[in-house]
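Re-running Glutamate dehydrogenase to confirm reproducibility after the cluster update. Everything else is unchanged from the original entry.
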Amino acid sequence: MATSKDPYLEAKKQLRSAVDILGYSDEIYEMLSTPERIVQVKIPVKMDDGKLKIFTGWRVQHNSALGPYKGGVRYHPETNLSEVMALAMWMTWKNSLADIPYGGAKGGIQVDPFQLSPRELETLSRKYFAGISKFVGVDLDVPAPDVNTNPQTMAWFVDEYSNRNDAQLFGVVTGKPLELGGLQTRIFSTGLGVATVAKQAAKKIFGSIEGRTVAVQGFGNVGFYTAKFLNEMGAKVIAISDVKGGIYSSKGFDADEIKATISKKGSMFVTDYPNYEKKISNEELLQLNVDILVPAAIENVITEENVSKIKAKLIVEGANGPTAPEAEEYLTKKGVVIVPDTLANSGGVIMSHIEWVNNRMGGWITEDEARNRLIQKMENNLDMIWNFWENKLDHEKYNLRMAAYGIAVDKVVRAMKLRGWI
Ligand SMILES: NC(=O)C1=CN([C@@H]2O[C@H](COP(=O)(O)OP(=O)(O)OC[C@H]3O[C@@H](n4cnc5c(N)ncnc54)[C@H](O)[C@@H]3O)[C@@H](O)[C@H]2O)C=CC1
Ligand SMILES: O=C(O)CCC(=O)C(=O)O
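Result of re-run:
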């Protein structure tokens, strides 16, 4: 999934700026710019045709000062160690900022899961988790879904881990099916969180989200639910895309209707929805004249090359790392507000935390309570970062990401000091 730029270099660049603003030493930068542990596993799978295929997977544990490592696992043909290292670092800041007691980690397997049969996918998933099982645990490292993984993947992980440990350890992963201690709310929590902060930020910038035009890149878990909740909030989603391209309608789309229509055709691609005005490319979607742009697919889509053509006044990062630092610098100078990934897409891990607590307590929370807690936390977090940015920083010079980094990195450093690490 890595794009032409190296996301780990970009993540380090962002950290460097934050460390400089906070006035921390080079040693602290060194400590935070590299992961605490990298686990690499070779995964041999006997394929259905009898041939042996060897896959490579990773679990990168970036920092555990604030608690057990936490972060998703992605399956993608282009993922690599560098990408997983960047994503693990971003999880540290996201969890710190969300004020949940977790460190940061991420996992990945370099594979195209759509080329595998269900049996091959289950074998791959179980062997990956067996390979990393000594390094994960309810109080050690708690994986979850990310790109191309889902509750079924988590069920295989839980079963493999529980069998190896002679106990039913459901809290070892989150994003599980309901029957195994998952919460219905986890499925839509990232999208609900993205839509909630979009609404809050739109209120500050435009007065309201109602009637505001939006383009959403990505129609997977995050993109679909973001569009769905934005529809419910009264925004007008005029463009949607996925890996195959996008569609545009000046009247606006109903995300549920797109999903239902393409599902009936056995498709997952938005371009198979017939009621659009024109087909557009992903690049055209990013450059549309909309109020709000939500990149919710992959990293590095807003770059030095296309940034001068971006017209949205508000960008809400559903994906991890969609904006390159050079592009962000340009947009900051232009007065475009970017709600950074570490805040905007934290709804997923916030709900994961609720699921994890619920598992440890034997099940107590209702779906309504979980949903309300999430909305409240997202609103409070957006306000906290916005106020810090407006009141404590020169907001001509610094942006919301640096405000978020300032709060998140400072907390991790304080925890490391208290624990006597530095
Ligand atoms: N699922 C979750 O709870 C969370 C996901 N994220 C991030 O959100 C982003 C999307 O994740 P999910 O929705 O879970 O993945 P997903 O696998 O459910 O959906 C990904 C979507 O992106 C599209 N896509 C893939 N490559 C593309 C390309 N080159 N150009 C345009 N579209 C492309 C796919 O067609 C699909 O519609 C990722 O950056 C992920 O790390 C962040 C926080 C939590
Ligand atoms: O819910 C989780 O623990 C993982 C979420 C995640 O991978 C992310 O926020 O990027």
